[in-house]
Amino acid sequence: MAKLQGFEFWRKTLKEARFVVAPMVDQSELAWRLLSRRHGAQLCYTPMLHAQVFVRDANYRRENLYNEVCEEDRPLITQFCANDPEVFLQASLLAQDYCDAIDLNLGCPQMIAKRGHYGAFLQDEWELLEKMVRLAHEKLSVPITCKIRVFKELERTVRYAQMLEKAGCQLLTVHGRTKEQKGASTGIANWEHIMAVRKAVNIPVFANGNIHHLSDVERCIQETGVQGVMSAEGNLHNPALFEGCSPPIWEMAEEYLDVVKEHPPCTLSYVRAHLFKLWHHTLQIHQDLREELAKVKTIEGLAGVSKQLRLRCQEEIAQGKDAEEKDGSLPFPHWICQPYVRPAPKDPDVNGDSKSSEVKKAGCQKRALEDFDAVADTLSKNKQKKRSRNPHKNFCPEHKPAKYIKCEQCGNPKGNKCVFNLCRGCCKKKAFKEVADCPSHGLRFKTRAEKKQAEEKEKKGSAAETGTSTALQSEARLLL
User: Fold this and answer.
1) Please, are residues 174 and 203 in contact by the beta-carbon 8 Å criterion?
2) SS3 for 171?
3) Catalytic residue (one of 99, 108, 146, 423)
4) Active site includes 44?
5) Which residues contact 417 (CB under 8 A, 6 or more apart)?
6) CA–CA separation, 54 vs 236, rounded Å?
7) pLDDT, tens digit, for every residue of 241-271?
8) What global pTM score does this model have?
9) What does 30-80 look like in DSSP terms, one character per residue?
């Protein structure tokens, strides 16, 4: 059967999907995808998978894709990050039978992507990207799609999209932010760039960015002309976003936990992260349960904390606090599923407000080292968590082990009892060269050499004895 392309692929394979759940690392796992599909999502992506690890590690393939095969979970697109055409192709070939398309991540702006040289940090390497997309398009039995971020210049964004289309990309998701727009500097996504891309290419386009409610989805489609809209954070805070409703949080939390139990195994950290997102606004009020949610180590424990949160919220409703407890910054009471909107970054020096700048500087000053030594309670949150797990752990700097002694040749840690005062690598080279032993590193070059010499001497001795006995036997025969 011929591989479907472009709009035909979108219509027949993806069934004209308009409501799309984004690929989210450690968050768009099977259980969450199924929950989202039950509440209006028409297409889901797997979490971003690392192509190189996927190729070399069978367990990684099994845990992140093969074990998550489910008839309800289609259509499905598998996303990879990669920077090598051959590795990307190998990973895609291993995954293509378990999904409906392969997506190349060209949108991740995080520091880990910069260090690994993938995601949005490849967007200037057009020759490499063209080769990766073209090779996948030619060799795969399923279509290749791409998810990108925009450039600051609209014309460059359009040319970028056209290059990927020409290379063989069959569907393009455009996140309307640049790679610099992340964290506190996330800001507003630029739909103008998305609209320009949609008009410039002849393949389906999905929009991503600024999606908090169903009304945003409809407005985005109307303003940009895209075929579908993708949601990430909006979906995490309200999995019923595409249904156009905002249910009580406990309904979504309990349904999600039921799906997790129906489709094991599900990594505990994924489940915990989803509950933190769902209960985000409520946990700002019930701080004690926030700590409890962070500590429990089983799915049942997480379900127990979620139940406590539900009971507290229902008690507030019964007492008529739904109007009183409503935060002025929230459109609904805190126990209703609703988006989290990052506060815009503030410039403390605006309008000459130097006083607020001084206050901020004072609040951000680091603790003095002497305070840490003098007061035992000034541990960081991370160390406090470690102490709660291990009460006997000592964080006093005086009791920390001394810095390691360096190898005399390379600077790596030396073996504590090494006869040459070297690390194992340098010790091995020196012991081999000098035919010496180092018991600390388990090296026995001298011992083996002596053993070999003894064996050779023994062989020579036995050979000489054999020769003498043979000579005596021949003399005896002559006498006879």
Assistant:
1) no
2) coil
3) 108
4) no
5) 439, 440
6) 26
7) 999 999 999 999 999 999 999 998 899 999 9
8) 0.73
9) HHHHHHHHHTT--EEEPPPEEHHHHHH-HHHHHHHTGGG--TTS-SEEEEE
